[in-house]
Amino acid sequence: MRDAPARKFARMIRALAVLALAFALPLAASGPANAGDSSPAYADITWSDLLPEGEAQRIAELQQMQALEFGFDHFGTDQMPQLQTFNVVDELDGEVVRIGGYILPFDYSGSNRTVSRFLLVPYVGACIHVPPPPPNQLIYVEADDPIEVQGLWDPVFITGTMRTRREDTDLADTAYTMELEAVTPYRP
After folding, report:
1. What stretches of the chain adopt beta strand conformation (E)?
2. What angle separates helix 55-70 from helix 4-24, to the nearest 10 degrees?
3. Phi and psi dihedrals of 161, rounded to 5?
4. What 8-state DSSP symbol labels residue 23?
5. C-alpha triplet 97, 114, 179: angle, nearest 5°
6. Other CB atoms closer than 10 Å to residue 17's CB: what's the count?
7. Which of 117, 120, 172, 182 could form a disulfide with 139, with the two C-beta atoms 3.0–4.6 Å apart?
8. Considering its fold, how many domains does the chain have in total?
């Protein structure tokens, strides 16, 4: 039987995993792009839609095991690696979708506030603290033309064709990529 501190620690890790998903869910609760149009050109999805059935529980268990193995320090330790779960929802491949999140740029130019490559992340601070979310909770985006970003802490919607394709980057690995069509400010 595990001792009381280990049980308390395990409960804390499960709560953090649920909290991370909870931050992501409000960003997707919105209607079609044109309120009067009954058939939008895209499907609104949430971060939980990127997880195959049972994957959220699997991620929570993996996070708990990882925390017990490496300890828990989300302020810059490089001990705890990103969970490498690339399980995706195959039906999303090739679908035109819109999802809310936060832009984490690779090449932000502060003088003209543009980016051409970024990760869309489910909550503020993802990938800044270690470890980043699992690959199936990140979307790699490369824009044909650089896009203007109003504020790096402002939520946005991105719309485009979703691909279930792995992309390994210096910040984190992703299980999804998007062929970007539009970035718009998040409005509930």
Report:
1. 43-44, 96-105, 114-121, 139-148, 156-163, 167-168, 173-174, 176-185
2. 130
3. -90, 120
4. H
5. 25
6. 21
7. 120
8. 1
Under 8 Å between Cβ of 87 and 78: no
What domain range includes position 41?
4-185
Residue ranges in the chain modelled with pLDDT below 50: 1-2, 5-35, 76
- Return the biggest CA–CA distance within the chain: 59
Q: For the domain that residue 21 is a member of, what is the CATH number? A: 2.40.50.870
Looking at residue 39, what is its pLDDT? 64
Give me the pLDDT at residue 25, please: 42
User: Per residue in 45-61, pLDDT tens?
Assistant: 999 999 999 888 888 88
Distance CA 54, CA 58 (A): 6
Asked if residue 131 has a cis previous peptide bond (ω within 30° of 0), the answer is: yes
Virtual torsion, Cα 36, 37, 43, 48, nearest 10 deg = 20
- Dihedral sign, CA of 7, 8, 13, 19? positive
